[in-house]
Amino acid sequence: MKLKGKITLVTGADRGIGRGIVEVFAEEGADVAVNYIEEPEKAEAVAQWVREKGRRSIIVKGDVARRADVEAMIDKVWNELGPLDVLVNNAGIETIVPFLDLTDEQWTRLVDVNLRGEWLCSQVYCRCVVAEGRKGNIVNIGSIQAAKVLPGRTHYAPAKLAIEALTRNMSAEMTPLGIRVNCVHPGLIDTDMTAWIMKSADVLPGILAQISLGRAGAPREVGAVAAFFASEESSYLTGQSIHVDGGWVGK
Ligand code: NAP
Question: 227 near 3, Cβ under 8 Å?
Answer without folding.
Answer: yes
